[in-house]
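FAQ

Q: What does a record look like?
A: Structure on top, sequence underneath. For example:
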């Protein structure tokens, strides 16, 4: 079952540009990772330190395999250095409403 992942970040105000540069370097590996269907980055128009990442994966298991890989490579630790707080990760299921 397809899985939607919503991640919210609060960036340090002096780290926004460095974060963007870092992400530009690593996101091609995310987009080519097995099971990744889409990754989009959305900055709050009124606050550039407020970022939402919306990802679509073939399944939650695919995302979890990816997340574990990013943890093992140290990428998540590097991303944490740009953040002003803990990120929020939510898994969403599309409703039939």
């Amino acid at each position: 079952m397809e899985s939607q992942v919503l991640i919210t970040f609060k960036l340090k105000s002096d780290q926004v540009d460095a974060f963007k540069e870092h992400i530009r370097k690593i996101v091609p590996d995310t987009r080519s990772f097995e099971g990744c269907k889409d990754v989009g980055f959305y900055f709050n128009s009124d606050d550039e330190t407020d970022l939402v990442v919306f990802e679509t994966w073939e399944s939650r298991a695919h995302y979890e395999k990816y997340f574990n890989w990013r943890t093992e490579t140290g990428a998540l630790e590097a991303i944490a250095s740009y953040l002003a707080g803990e990120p929020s990760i939510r898994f969403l299921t599309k409703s039939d409403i």
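Q: Is there anything notable about this one?
A: Helices lie at 16-31, 60-73, 75-80.
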